[in-house]
Amino acid sequence: MLGQLHRAGFRAVADPSEAELIVVNTCAFLTASQQESIETILDVSRLRETGNLKKLVVAGCLAQRHGTSLLEELPEVDYLLGTGAIGSVVEIANGLLAGGLARGAELGGLDRAEFDWEPRVLSGHRHTAYLKISEGCNNTCTFCIIPTLRGKHRSRPIEDLVAEATRLAGFGVRELTIIAQDTTSYGLDLYGRFSLDRLLEALDAVPGIRWIRLLYTYPRYFTDELIDCFGRLEKLRLYVDMPIQHAADSVLRRMRRGLGWDGTEILLRKLKAVPGMVLRTTVIAGFPGETEEEHRFLLDFLREFQFDHLGAFAYSTEEGTPAGEMDGQLPEELRWERRDAILAQQRTIALRHNRARIGQSLEVLIDSVDDSKAVALGRWSGQAIEIDGQVKLTIPDGGPGVSAGDLVTVRIRGAGPYDLSGVIEEPVQEGNCRA
Ligand code: SF4
User: Are residues 34 and 132 in the same domain?
Assistant: First the structure.
């Protein structure tokens, strides 16, 4: 949307109070994320009085999930743009600002085969970017509303993604984080086979990109060809994010995850056996009907397996999902209690993993440098942007000057459950990018 608006002559401003038009792109995955979206819309709408705001558009999943009823509930909003209608953002922005377009909504279909991703404008860092390889999801996890909001799975062609990665590298991007609702299904619709391995090979050859990281893999479709990419491809980090959601077979069945516990565990052990592999997962605590025994089984497995990174969520009952209708909805308090128990256990595990890195030399990608130039924040290849911890770097007096996007070698001196700290040893030279 930003790219389309930019191409049509709109100028993005860093300070929202200067904007005449604001597009709030929303999430509606969980009740909590819907609440956060609504709070943001209400906050932004106050800029009609205190800033330059003339028109407010709400785009994305919240618009898609509630349709025109949202217009009735939120008189602050001028227009709703659903997930299938983002191609209309320029027309709607022009129509609203010129005064000819009345309040309304365009939700669009969720079956678009084509994507208009060009030209992309980066709104955050310049050295790291997400690369979205497909849209939608064909899985039917019973707790999840996403397929209803984003439609069936559609992959972007390999050439299209390589072209985008090449352009991003031209802007100075050095790290690509591969995302989609389900990255492992990539290519089945276009090429008749799971093709993430082929895509990663093609992206690995893009000059200027130094790190490629894979998020949101789905256990059922993790192929041996994909496992074989780790350690073989130069830029693909030894890092896999694979949400398992639970470990008890009975719960996985109720979640309709498509792969039972035996298959999931075999896969996890194969991934763990790749030398240097860092594993991240997410789990749901307090799914409908979860017994104390099932919760214990999950805790025991997590304690024994020891993921490097773990996110745990208290189950959220969502309208319009099969799990939302299931008997045995647990009290909120119990869901949070179980989630807290999982996280408390993980803190000890993560702290132990991080402490084992004290004394090691790690390659770190710098994300930001503070004004004094004495401290920088970065990540080693086992830390994904925005979801894992960081490495806090002390730059010695008279030490190397560094900027965001630099790869440097760091001697790790300290460790907490999430973050590491260390001292820069030397800048990493061009072409010397393996950790
Ligand atoms: S794979 Fe992910 S996006 Fe797809 S239905 Fe399951 S939880 Fe939702």
Answer: no
> What is the DSSP code (8-state) at residue 120?
P
Closest residue by Cα to atom 2, ligand 1, is: 181
Query: 63-85: per-residue pLDDT in tens?
Result: 999 999 999 999 999 999 998 88
From the list 301, 171, 278, the residue with the least C-alpha distance to 230 is 278
Q: Is the domain of 338 the same as that of 374?
A: no
Angle at 395 between CA 394 and CA 396, to 5 degrees: 110
pLDDT of residue 108: 77
Q: Residues, the chain, total?
A: 435
Q: What CATH number should be reported for the domain holding residue 228? A: 3.80.30.20
Statement to judge: residues 366 and 322 lie in one domain: no
The amino acid occupying position 138 is: N
The answer as to whether 78 is a domain residue is yes
Domain with residue 83: its CATH number is 3.40.50.12160
Report which of 27, 89, 98, 20 is spatially closest to residue 53, judged by C-alpha positions. Answer: 20
What residue numbers bound the domain in which 34 lies?
A: 2-106
Least Cα distance to 259 among 271, 269, 244, 273 occurs for 244
139 lines ligand 1 (CB under 6 A): yes
What is the structure's pLDDT at 325? 96
Structural domain contains residue 351: yes
Q: Which domain-ending residue is among 337, 355, 373?
A: 355
Same domain flag for 224 and 249: yes
Tell me 156's DSSP state: P
Q: Which residue has the tokens 């969502």?
A: 318
Q: How far is CA 364 from the centre of its chain?
A: 20
Most ligand 1 atoms within 8 A of CB, residue of 141, 148, 154 to mutate = 141
Cα separation, 53 vs 230, in Å, equals 48
CA neighbours closer than 13 Å in the CB half-sphere of residue 219: 26
30 lines ligand 1 (CB under 6 A): no
Cβ contact 363:403 at 8 Å: no
Give the count of domains, the chain: 3
Nearest CA to ligand 1 atom 6: 141
The reply to whether ligand 1 has any atom less than 6 angstroms from the CB of 1 is: no
Residue 113 in domain: no
* Residue where a domain terminates, one of 106, 139, 172: 106
Structure token digits, residue 235: 């830029």
pLDDT per residue over 289-308, tens digit each? 999 999 999 999 999 999 99
The tokens for 280 are: 């991240």
